[in-house]
Amino acid sequence: MLQRLVIERLGHKGEGVARTEEGLxxxxxxxxxxxxxxxxEGERARVVDILEPSPDRIEAFCPHxxxxxxxxxxxxxxxxxxxxxxxxxxxxxRNAGLDWPxxxxxxxxxxxxxxxxxxxRFEQSVARVGFMRARxxxxxxxxxxxxxxxRLAGAPAAARALAQALxxxxxxxxxxxxxxxxxxxxxxxxxxxxxxRETLALLELAETLDLARLANHGRLVTLRLPPGVxxxxxxxxxxxxxxxxxxxxGEAAIARLVAQGVGEKAKRVxxxxxxxxxxxxxxxxxxxxxxxxxxxxxxxxxxxxxxxARGLRPIIAQARxxxxxPLDPQELSRFDAVVFDPPRxxxxxxxxxxxxxxxxxxxAVSCDPQSFARDAAVLxxxxxxxxxxxxxxxxxxxxxxxxVALFERASEATPRRRLLSR
Length: 422
What we know:
Blueprint lengths: L1 E9 L5 E5 L2 E5 L7 E7 L2 E9 L25 H18 L10 E2 L7 E9 L2 E7 L6 E3 L13 H11 L7 E8 L2 E7 L6 H13 L4 E4 L2 E5 L5 E3 L2 E3 L11 H15 L5 E5 L7 H4 L4 E6 L2 H13 L6 E5 L9 H4 L4 E4 L7 H8 L5 E6 L2 H13 L2 E10 L8 E8 L13
Parallel strand pairs: 3-5, 6-21, 11-12, 16-17, 16-19, 17-18, 19-20
Antiparallel strand pairs: 1-2, 1-4, 2-3, 4-5, 7-8, 7-10, 8-9, 10-11, 12-13, 14-15, 20-22, 21-22
Helix pairs in contact: 1-9, 8-9
């Protein structure tokens, strides 16, 4: 049904939100202040025409925008866009009953994203590679993405060639590509166990495409050149498909804030959910670091890098499931500062243990405002207050947002918190 909608605001997924007699309606690619004509079905709307455009509307720079689901907000002018991104954190905190100030957004796009996952689907045994449409299982083929850093320029073609080599399986594939120091580092997912002829075909392609490393579900197919990433001054060789911050500038910006939060006086630091050591390998320049993560391969990569690095204090790297076995208050008492950077779901159990601890400084890093706000509320109830909360945008034009926050016990921090009445 065609309906005239007045867009009030952007939602947390980047969709325009309109209020109707039937309730809220969400219109992708519409902007606040706009009046649009849209096909409405339930709470979803597809914009047919923009009757009154927003004064903040600008031209999209990607020809796939509006079709590809990778970018939610590309036509909003920079100042309004930055305020929307910042508001994602403000709204999440407010909904959790916290009135803490949020600093201005830091743009950490830098040279672009250094890792990307392509989807591959097959039509009549021909590989199609790209991204999914928004809220759809339909594939949008792409040959280039302007958000990727230059080292990934050949990634779509490489992903297509590798997928084509496995076309006989007819299985949907994901190809995780990272720009490493030795070239493209690719992990194929969804193929299952390879046959010998498929492995030989992939080996030949790895040579032709000059790949640094090729893996299948994390299992090595071939290693031609060291697939390294630089963390500060230390080179790390991550396991296939390892988690890295989306942009090099994003990692550096987060690490600077983490170091600021930890402070120069901290001599013993815990880095929880450490991954391959984005923070541990930097913090070890001034402190003894205990780095913990459930990913055994990532912890081993960190340990190898730490043993060969120069000018660093000892790093104790441990594999431990912090969701099932969070560090308890007694274990935490050994540290002057704790950094925790959990996955998107947050770290409720570890936050509860931290809230009951005597740790002076806690630095939280999060990629999800909602789980961050939940964990922050736990720390607040334990007597901690936020010294700063800084949003970082390394997923430009998407609703994804990074946050870094420093928490101190309220008696030691500048009083800046009050619980909102519900």
